[in-house]
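Exercise 7.
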Amino acid sequence: MRDEYVGDVGDFGKYILLDELSGISKGKVKIGINWYYNVTPLPINNLLPDKIRRGYIYLSDGKGRYRNLNRHMFDSLRSIVFNNDSTPQLSDIENKKVVKDCLFYRKPIPYSQPTKERRAHREQWFQESLNTLDGADVIFLDPDNGVAPFTVTKSQTDSVKYVFVDEIKRYYDLKKSLIIYQHRDFSPMVDFTSRFMTSLLHIKPQCFPLFLRFSRVSVRYYALIARTEKHNVLFAKLFNKLTNDYAYLFGSCD
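Solution. The predicted structure, written as tokens, is:
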């Protein structure tokens, strides 16, 4: 996740998901978020003018569909995006308590070290995330792109865009239920889903997560992996809530 994307359409859906999870659990499930905070400089041609970026979530809302779905969330993000005192940052999401009662890990993923040192620095960064989020029951992993392809290593510059399978497994082995963000790439759907499922099978054989599809502006997926039967029931309720009450945003992957 990057500061540059705070308050976009994807954020709107993401925080609805987490807010509804908290509500369904009646506050009994502690949520932890590892932002997979990416602070590498964006290429100049990827930078939107500030005025356009700040309006990103709202430009396509001429009929008020987003706000009518969840006015509290829409207005909370709007207050952050259109705060003229500063450029929106992830810290605003935390400080404004957009999602209540969460643990956050917002240390930037290391990237500027020499190639040979990056793996060790990444390991130190990740170990600190385990310590910071130890009190969470459900952990949301929010990398820019999603699960790393097997062709990407932790020594590469692009590693900052991904969560790696061994990192997911280490959270899982600590008995954490997981929600994993995955951005849709341009490969055929069959190839995309096969690659994603193959990655998740390395976490646990016969792992059958629930998949949510968010299809506004850019297609995004969320894999919900329950670590306990209690969380399995919780995730099923969350899935039904989002695909029914928020059908404009969320759907299944059928």
